[in-house]
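User: Let's play a game. I give you a shape written as tokens, and you guess the letters that built it. Ready? Here's round one.
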């Protein structure tokens, strides 16, 4: 899903770029890297050991210094990414970075002064601020109804068991 989204962003904002995608760094071929001027790597979804993934990209960065490397990392990967991936040709962006910042980073190329996104260096914001999400707390009865619905019970059965009306259960 992320890969498809990145492809669409690149097609929309940078139609002059040829887009090649791969599932992991290991899938990149030497020919692809030799022909590339930009690599965007989403490390936020990686399930492997962060250190080994960063070390693999570190070896690629040292071999292909003419490529602008943009790494999208989560806060949990931040220290590993700074230690192993930071160089004059690399930029670290947060995995929750607005698309506009990614576009700005790609447009500015290797001349971009901000090598580490402010979102990665700022104190962690709570989820409430990031997504304007309001916490919802369910009552005990609501939790019981949902649990029974999840087990396949019907509205009438639940209403009988909990001694409530069908209308109340449906709401």
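Assistant: Ready! My guess for every position:
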């Amino acid at each position: 899903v992320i890969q498809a989204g990145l492809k669409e962003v690149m097609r929309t904002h940078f139609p002059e770029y040829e887009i090649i995608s791969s599932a992991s760094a290991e899938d990149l071929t030497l020919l692809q890297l030799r022909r590339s001027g930009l690599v965007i790597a989403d490390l936020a979804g990686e399930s492997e050991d962060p250190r080994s993934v960063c070390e693999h990209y570190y070896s690629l960065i040292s071999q292909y210094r003419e490529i602008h490397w943009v790494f999208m990392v989560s806060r949990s990967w931040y220290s590993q990414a700074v230690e192993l991936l930071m160089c004059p040709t690399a930029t670290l962006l947060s995995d929750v970075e607005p698309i506009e910042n990614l576009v700005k980073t790609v447009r500015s190329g290797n001349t971009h002064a901000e090598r580490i996104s402010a979102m990665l260096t700022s104190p962690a914001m709570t989820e409430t601020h990031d997504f304007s999400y309001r916490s919802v707390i369910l009552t005990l009865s609501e939790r019981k109804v949902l649990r029974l619905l999840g087990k396949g019970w019907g509205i009438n059965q639940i209403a009988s068991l909990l001694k409530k009306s069908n209308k109340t259960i449906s709401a």
